[in-house]
Recover the amino acids of this structure.
């Protein structure tokens, strides 16, 4: 099956700094990737859709300038949490839809990044 | 995006028993999927059922879909301790489109 790699898996940073999270599709190309946020014992909330070569599409209520998304290649999307504050502490997960017949509707997920802002 | 509801929120059973989780959603869908998440990890796809299908099987998993009631159920038979995880239903409205996740069911299988 398709593999999505997410890095780092865990990051601790000081308030006010920026943190970049990478999401890579390892054995397939992904023109679209999705970024989610998950609070403890809760479901995934879609933050934005990352589009290769064009601007990301953000969900209502998600600050574009706060969560910068760059999808510069067919295998890499990055999420940068700018000027992070403690309320940004969360679990961030990316995904990419599969390729080929029967797999396009299936999402392949990274292992997630736990962000702790002090 | 509006989330679907899942029940129960948490389920604790003994190994060998069956586990049933239910999902309700709000809008018309193309497909409904079930994903599994181990604690602190990403999600893994389990099974997909199309809107024109009513039941689907995969190994110990059985999924039903009732589009008239906008609901689905996931049955895990002969559960194992390794089935302990959170289970989420997710709906989509088209090919490679974004998913809308349910609230999730935390399953605990004890020996």
């Amino acid at each position: 099956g398709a593999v999505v790699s997410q890095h780092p898996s865990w990051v601790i940073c000081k308030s006010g700094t920026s943190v970049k999270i990478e999401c890579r599709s390892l054995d397939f190309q992904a023109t679209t990737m999705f970024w989610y946020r998950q609070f403890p014992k809760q479901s995934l909330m879609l933050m934005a859709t990352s589009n290769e070569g064009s601007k990301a599409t953000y969900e209502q209520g998600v600050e574009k300038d706060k969560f910068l998304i760059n999808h510069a290649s067919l295998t890499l999307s990055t999420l940068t949490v700018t000027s992070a504050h403690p309320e940004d502490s969360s679990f961030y997960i990316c995904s990419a839809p599969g390729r080929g017949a029967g797999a396009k509707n299936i999402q392949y997920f990274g292992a997630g990044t736990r962000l702790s802002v002090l | 995006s509006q989330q679907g509801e899942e029940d129960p929120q948490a389920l604790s059973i003994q190994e060998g028993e069956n586990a049933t989780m239910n999902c309700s959603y709000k809008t018309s869908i193309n497909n409904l999927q079930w994903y599994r998440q181990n604690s602190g990890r990403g999600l893994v796809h389990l099974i997909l059922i199309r809107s024109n299908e009513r039941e689907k099987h995969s190994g110990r998993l059985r999924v039903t879909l009732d589009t008239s009631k906008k609901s689905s159920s996931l049955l895990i038979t002969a559960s194992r301790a390794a089935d302990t995880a959170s289970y989420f239903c997710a709906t989509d409205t088209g090919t490679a489109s974004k998913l809308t996740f349910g609230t999730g069911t935390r399953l605990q299988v004890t020996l």
